[in-house]
Amino acid sequence: MEELGLLMQGFVVVMEPQNLLLMLVGIALGVLIGVLPGLGGANGIAILLPLTFAMPPVSAIIMLSCIYWGALFGGAITSILFNIPGEPWSVATTFDGYPMAQQGKAAEALTAAFTSSFVGAFVAIVMITFIAPVIAGFALRFGPPEFFAVMFLSFASFVGMSKGPPMKTVCAMMLGFLLAAVGMDTVTGQLRMTFGSTEMIRGFDFLVAVIGLFGISEILCSIEDGLRFKGERARIDARVVLKVWASLPKHWWLALRSSLIGCWMGITPAGATPASFMSYGVARRMAKDGASFGKGRIEGVIAPETAAHAAGTSALLPMLTLGVPGSPTAAVLLGGLIMWGLQPGPMLFVEQKDFVWGLIASMYLGNVVGLIVVLVAVPWFAAILRVPFSIIAAIILVVCAIGAFTVSNAEFDITLMLIFGVIGYVLKKLDYPLAPLVLALVLGDRTEEAFRQSLLISQGSLGVFFSNWLVSSIMALGFALLLWPVVSWVLERFNAHRSRTGPALPRGA
Amino acid sequence: MSAERGLRMGVVEVGTALAFALAGAAAIGDSLRIGTGWGSDGPKSGTFPFWIGLILIAASTATLVQAVRSRAESGLFASWAQLRLVASVLVPTAVYVGAIPFTGIYVASAALVAWFMHRLGGFGWARSAAAGLAVAVACFLLFEIWFLVQLPKGPLETWLGY
Amino acid sequence: MIYLNFRRNPGVVTRFQDRNAMPGKAGMMLKGCSRRSLLMGAGAAALAPSLSSPALAQRGWEPNRPVQFIVPAGTGGGADQMARVIQGIVSKHKLMRQPMVVVNKAGGAGAEGFLEAKGARGNPHMIVITLSNLFTTPLATGVPFNWQDLTPVAMLALDEFVLWVNAESPWKTVAEFAAAAKQERLKLGGTGSKQEDQIIGVALSKATGAQFTYVPYRGGGEVAVQLVGKHVDLTVNNPIEAVTHWRSGALRPLCVFDSQRLANTEKMTDTMAWSDIPTAKESGLDVEYLMLRGIFMPAGVQPAQLAFYEGLLEKVRETPDWRELMQQGAFNTTTMTGDTFREWLTKEEAKHKTLMQEAGFLA
């Protein structure tokens, strides 16, 4: 095994004390960046990039990729504690993570999130280590029709399990699509729905909307019941970690399935955000009592976190082998490689073996170090909930405002955030589900783009979505998932008729 | 039905449904302007927003009809007391957001934190002001100095040379 | 991801040239001299005002707060990468006492960034890196902005465009390719819409008489991979976006859209160097297009402030880090400042207007 030998050499390089120290610094910084909404891994890496010129490339990339791991870990923290996703891929984590925190189980949710992140990343790294070349070639098969099919699959796995009334679900989702369409149409270069306003040109950023819809609206909702946060009496002791760990092995199939979804989405490269949604959707579909998702199920934290981290990790593979980054963070990382004279692409694995294997070794160690760092900090994170509401609410508002601003350096976005907060408050109280809105907002743009690119290629024929085995099978899978609620509804009727004790099944949207 | 007085659910339902329909109509209007058919480079920019707008109007109309029908038995959206509590957070936040372009984000943040602590938390003015200042300074160090992220700044920062 | 694309988002300024376009001083220089002699000879004339300025600038004016470096493109794009390389060089070689902060303003194909710079009249602590969207965005979207709303500081380089096809395609020369293009409608993959790639596509159609289906993608790196995966038939990627796929044997360059061949003679594959790629004109296609990578400041700044940045960029260009970047990306290292640059910009703008009008891209 040539790979193993090279990997061992990589470990030797990474284990140098100086590199281990840089790793710690990177992880800590990454967690901080992940916690602050709006400040993405891309910011942290971009800002530190100039400082790393003085280091050897391997050390520099170790530190920078550790920021990336840290940000992946850190995104879950605010999602669980305050319902504010620090990163786009943590949105699905809020669905069950935040209810857990409200029930006083913040430490459990955090432990589950961090551990499953680690598991997802680990599966992805193992895959990168052993079957990288095969997988990298697979990514080449993905053109616009395949990309659309994947997006369609994400929607299909998620739609139909909404808890809201069907018409309201449709309203929320359509609003998400409309918001996603505002700004420049990337296919024709035309401005849409800006109504002549220069502020609207940039469109509605997903993070700005989510900070408002989830974070601000949550503060408004919870204040109705008095000036305090639920879940403040969270039990906090170090044994929580061990207890959660003891319960995790029974979810091995869930974790493995979510890892595979994540790896697949990372390589395609659709990225971590759709991966987390899809994994959550599938987990809910597969669960016997899917209806209890969204009320604080630990599976609802494990599934998206595992998939997001697996996707985030495996997204580095197309970046290294093809030069196409799976996320903005990976993009900046890629820029870093070039500055050190390393040309990402098919030749990197051939010409820069030391570097590549050093990086892969640092992925293993970085994630182990990352897990230790965040787990040690779990009690402190959970303790934040004990800070009096009047202090923490104001600080959350300030951090949200800063986050909304930093997304695209626009003051107008802070106002937007507040408007979205009020909208979120009203919609939540009226039982409009927010998840479909957010899903449509985050994926709508890319989905429409892929759809139109495909039609351009096929000169308008919809047959392009069934033109080869790959795209056909993804589309077929999507339709199967989409029609599932209908089928299960029929089955439910049938069963209810016979026994009157049919299991609760998701309602169709 | 609660004996408490407040904003009725039905009113908000109808208002929200109308707002959704309005958004749909706006989308359709703009889409018609830029074209909804097949152009020289594929489906025109307005195609998707147009259909989405139509669906949105249809779905919100259905919601509206439902809301109007069941208006009589709908409960409270929120009692006046609850809304007053919400306003106690929302109004200062709106003022905060409105003040940012003029005072910069740091001064406004310090004021917001101090206000919350004093009014909602019952802390003394001295402690509240100190906490506000601490938050602002911490944010300044973190973002402006360390991460080199330029946040909105006002006269105070300019005077200090930033 | 520099590599990803030196223009994942709307790119830099450009020079489009048909046979007799671009008369005038700048044009003559570009056409007449080899790239190297241009840099040292004719270029020196253009740089003359700035050569004396660094010393003056240091005495005269210096930034007294952090300098915002606006990138009218997304994180990770080509312009973004160049901005970050400059930021890195400035901090590594301590060329400035205040820090330089890169700010991405990508909204509306860069319109957001340009409008911000337009609104910052007289602010000496802001510079903008430009892509070809400096011309194309206002023309295509009708956003109220023009390059004359800014102060041109310097042209740093010009980015080249190369015609790429999949190495497994039967076309080995432009002539074979053009013949095939007339037979069936080929798919041209490119970055963005109504921007440099599509403009080149229109020019290609004009020159070959063949129609292409233009498929827009988000980034140049993505475009190159789509060509490797045979989802499109040709691309006009910048050298740096496609070089690794060329070297791995997946892509084949047919011609470069410049008036002279690329300067780099180092062998990139077993048989070819950048300099072995024929120009479009040699191959019988009268298409020429280069994309400006230039720096601007807001309008209404003091001459001493302008001089400071001219001097700063001059120092940046002298560093080995910069030269390495130029080498890697096979850039055209033409530089200009002052009036020469302004003159060049005026002509480019007119040229883009004509081209986009002919293509029906005007808003």
From TrEMBL, chain C:
It holds the Pfam family TctC. It comes from the Bacteria. CDD domains: PBP2_Bug_TTT. InterPro entries: BUG (IPR005064), Bug_dom1 (IPR042100), TAT_signal (IPR006311). Belongs to the UPF0065 (bug) family. This is Tricarboxylate transport protein TctC. It comes from uncultured Craurococcus sp.
